[in-house]
Amino acid sequence: MRAVFDVGSNSVRLAVADVKNGKLVNQQTYLAFSRLAEGRAADGSLTEPAMLRTFQAVQSLMPHLGRLPRCSEHLLVTATAALRQAPNRRFLMDRLEELCGVPVRLLSPQEEAYYGFTGALAGSDAAAAEALVLDIGGGSTELSYFHKDRWSSKSFPYGCLVLKDHPDRLGHFRADLGESLSASILKEKRLIGIGGTLTTLAAILLGLDTYDPEAIHKSRINRSDWLSFMQSYAAMTPSERAHIPGLAAERRDTILPGLLILDVICSSFQLEGYTASVTDGLDGILLSNLYAGSEQ
Q1: 77 vs 70, which has greater pLDDT?
Q2: Model confidence pLDDT, tens digit, residues 164-194
Q3: Would you say residue 198 has pLDDT above 60?
Q4: What strands lie across the sheet with 220-222, from one edge to the other?
Q5: Averaged over 3-17, what is the pLDDT?
C-alpha cells in the first residue's frame, strides 16, 4: 500500500492505493481546500492563516491513512508552486514533517509536469508522442509533451489563485507563453486537461450534482463550450453561481481565472478543446520510484 499527500497552492489531496503489475488498484482520493497561495506577499511569502489552513487540511485527511506505516517506503508528502516559491516555507514544512513522520519533498516545476504527464497517460488511450498535457493549478500552470522523441515541459508561475489575486498578470502570461512555445510544435497534439479547473469544467458541462470521476474521465470539452459558460457565468449573481451543479463553493471565485488560462493557451496554439482526465500527478507519483526501496 502507498499513499501521497499533494500540498498544492489551492488544496491538499491525499491518494492511497496498491500497485500491482505497474497499475494502481483500490485507489481512494481525498480532498481538502486550503488556499495556501492566497494573499502571498510580493516575494512569495505565505501568510500565517494560509499555512495554518494547510496544516489543518493535512491533519484532517490523516485518518484516511489508517494503519499505513508512517515511513518513506509507504508515504510521501509532496509540495508544488506555493511552497516551492515561498521564502518562509520552512515553518510549514517542519510542522508537516512532524505531523506525517516523513520529509516534505518539494517538486521542481519539471518534476511536477513529469508526474502530471505520466499520470495522465496512465489513464489515456493517447500515445505519449501525440499527447499535450495541461495542468492548471492554483499557483502555476504546466504544459508537457514530446518533441523529436524527447519529453519537454514548460512551467509558468500563473495559476487560478494567482490570477484571482492579480488579474493584470494574464497579459504577462500570454507574452511568456508566446516566447516559450511554438505553435508548430503543439498544433498536432491531443490536449489532455488535468487539475481542478479542468475537471470541474467537465463536471459543470455534464451537469453533475455529485462528483463522478467515471463520467468526467475522457469527456471531450470544446472551446465553444467554455466560452459560452464563461459568458454566462460572468453575468450571474453570487446566488445563481451557488446553484451551478458540479461547481464547489471553494472554486466559485477561481473558475473564471482558471478558464482564462485555458483559453489563452488554446487560442495561442489553435487548439479547439481538450479531453478531461482524472488521472494526474497523484497517479504519476504513486507509480513512481520516489518511494524508498522501490526500483531506481
Answers
A1: 77
A2: 999 999 999 999 998 998 888 887 899 999 9
A3: yes
A4: 150-156, 141-147, 131-136, 190-194, 273-276, 220-222
A5: 97
Among 32, 87, 81, 29, which residue's Cα sits nearest to residue 55? 32
Distance of alpha carbon 183 from the chain centroid = 24
What pTM value is reported for the model? Answer: 0.94
Longest Cα–Cα distance of the chain, Å, equals 54
Complete DSSP assignment for the chain: -EEEEEE-SSEEEEEEEEEETTEEEEEEEEEEE--TTTT--TT-PPPHHHHHHHHHHHHHHGGGGTT--SSTTTEEEEE-HHHHT-TTHHHHHHHHHHHHSSPEEE--HHHHHHHHHHHHHHT-SS-GGGEEEEEE-SS-EEEEEEETTEEEEEEES--HHHHHH-GGGHHHHHHHHHHH--HHHHTT-EEEEESHHHHHHHHHHHT-SS--HHHHTT-EEEHHHHHHHHHHHHT--HHHHTT-TT--GGGTTTHHHHHHHHHHHHHHTT--EEEE-S--HHHHHHTSS-STTS--
Domains and CATH numbers, the chain: 2-108 (3.30.420.40), 125-278 (3.30.420.150)
- What pLDDT does residue 295 have? 58
Q: Which residues pair with 2 in a beta bridge?
A: 17
State the Cα–Cα distance between residues 151 and 146, nearest whole angstrom: 4
Cell of 201: 469544467
Q: What is the mean pLDDT of residues 125-130?
A: 92
Give dist(CA 120, CA 134) in Å, integer: 10
